[in-house]
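Thread amino acids onto this structure.
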């Protein structure tokens, strides 16, 4: 896990501030969602008998929304209207924070994957051409054997004449496949072209 975090931290140059900002936005979004539940609870409390005032963060906002003299109580309709307004505001705030979080997360993820792909491509470009050519020859040999050419044994498995005959194929095609196979084997082994196996 620490290796993954180190790799991500190394590749997130230029986006570290945005990652911290995303964590802050996520925390605020969780607070907005939790306060929605508190507002719903306060609405039910205001509808009960006797009607109760909203809980702690919202009673200060209610006093600012509907100032009263000391000792007076807010009417039930005012409390419910205020709490419904707060429910709508918190819902809009939650939606906006979710949008910002998803937008920034997807932007960072796309740029990070593009950066990692570019690094991988640059690393592949720096590989030796000999190793790439050998891999290409192996791939071609495998493709020719899958196309229907006989799978011929190497010199350790038997002589040239012990090639597997594929039913329905002409001798000429089998010979051509054998030649191609031995040529590929000699190129893969690093021997010159005319060298006998």
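Threaded sequence (197 positions):
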């Amino acid at each position: 896990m620490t290796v993954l975090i180190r790799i991500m931290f190394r590749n997130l140059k230029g986006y570290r501030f945005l990652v911290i900002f995303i964590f802050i936005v996520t925390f605020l979004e969780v607070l907005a969602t939790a306060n929605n539940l508190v507002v719903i609870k306060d609405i039910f409390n205001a509808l009960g008998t006797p009607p109760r005032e909203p809980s702690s963060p919202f009673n200060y906002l209610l006093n600012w929304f509907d100032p009263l003299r000391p000792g007076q109580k807010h009417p039930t309709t005012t409390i419910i209207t205020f709490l419904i307004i707060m429910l709508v505001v918190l819902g809009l705030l939650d939606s906006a924070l979710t949008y910002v979080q998803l937008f920034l997360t997807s932007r960072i993820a796309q740029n990070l994957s593009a950066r990692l792909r570019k690094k991988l491509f640059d690393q592949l470009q720096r590989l030796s051409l000999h190793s790439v050519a050998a891999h290409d020859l192996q791939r071609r040999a495998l493709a020719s054997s899958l196309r229907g050419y006989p799978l011929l044994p190497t010199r350790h498995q038997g002589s040239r004449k012990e090639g597997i005959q594929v039913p329905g194929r002409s001798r000429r095609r089998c010979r051509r496949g054998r030649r191609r196979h031995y040529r590929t084997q000699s190129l893969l082994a690093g021997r010159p072209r005319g060298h006998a196996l």
